[in-house]
Radical SAM core domain-containing protein (Niastella yeongjuensis), 433 residues
Amino acid sequence: MVKTLFDTIYEGYAYTYPHKHSYRRLNNLSLPTLWSAEKKEALFLYLHLPFCEMRCGFCNLFTIANPQANMVDDYLKTLAREAKAIKQHINPRSFGQIAVGGGTPTFLHWQQLEKLFTIIRQLGAQPEQVPTSVEVSPATVTREKLSLLNEQGVDRISMGVQSFLENEVKALGRPQENKEVYAALDLLKQYPFATINVDLIYGTYGQTLSTWLHSVQEVIRYNVEEVFIYPLYVRPLTGITRLSQPQDDNRFIFYREAKQLLLSAGYKQVSMRMFQKKGIIQKQAARSYTCQEDGMIGLGAGARSYTSAVHYSSEYAVARQNIRSIIQQYIARPNFNEVDYGIELNKEEQQRRFVIKSVLHGTGLDLERYNSLYAHDALEAYPLLPELLKADMASLQNGIFQLTSMGLDYSDAIGPALYSEPIKQLITEFELQ
């Protein structure tokens, strides 16, 4: 089983489980009933703003470029209605983490951003007291917006740069000028955000090892606290599929070289994609959110919510007209009392989710905790795990099963290899809109 991992290094990004392509229509489940027995002391609050100033060629996220102004205003009004329903029907006790993503949340002008944070606070969330992250783009970073985010208590800014070479971002279908990127970084460094994250993409058309490492060296030069390096995946219905420029797949070579460069510059590897500066100080909530066990409340079209037994969201699409239609349906929705799209997780899938989320993160899988929750041995239930130990792709110390440095390198093969057969079948049958 392990040998096949070396043949399919870039099988898929298992950042959550089950994958959204496994979601289907649900039979109008009651929102209060779904959450009645859930723990609500350290929830993750996520708000999705599906708007951007441009649609990048590689992007398969739920977002549209340059929507009409009235759509954004109507969307924010609907977010407020949804938040009110969540407050009434779920009554979250406290949040352990907050994230605002998209899309590009800073596509909103600062008055709209202010409304967004009013909605967050009406839910009882307090950004100044818990880790709070907002996604931005170089083109939408302004002093006015950053001042507002800082005043609201945001402590992490994540900016997608992708490459510091204009020809490479152009090949990705993103008309971005370097002067804009550097100006945004210079401005960000003037604010006391605890963490500035920069996203980079490797495997771009025309990219060489030298040009790729130039981009990595630039983020190191700016001394940002966090770096995410993403392999290029060419997804259906994205603009980049029309380019069809065949080239050698050097992604693994590029990844390994970037990893060594970041480690030598004082970063630690948290996951295959995530590298953090050692010693950075982040806000700690009264009770920290853990992705394996705590729930997530998502607001907005495209946002996902997780209870222990049900994952749900709006429908998902990539094509502009279909995304627009889903957003319009969201805005026109009369209430948010029921859940009609997602997946119900049986006990086996709940256990599998715990394993996948734990194994792919640098902290690893706590075998004793798993056994106390599910009353059986994870190493017996998942044959791949002992195989990873034998191959030195994982270690077992003090009851923690953890991927080694080499194991992290193969995360995009290990994650999908742990998917159940029913979930694989649902993903295969999913028809992308």
Remarks:
- The mean pLDDT is 91.
- The radius of gyration is 21 Å.
- The CA atoms of residues 187 and 419 lie 42 Å apart.
- The chain has 17 helices and 18 strands.
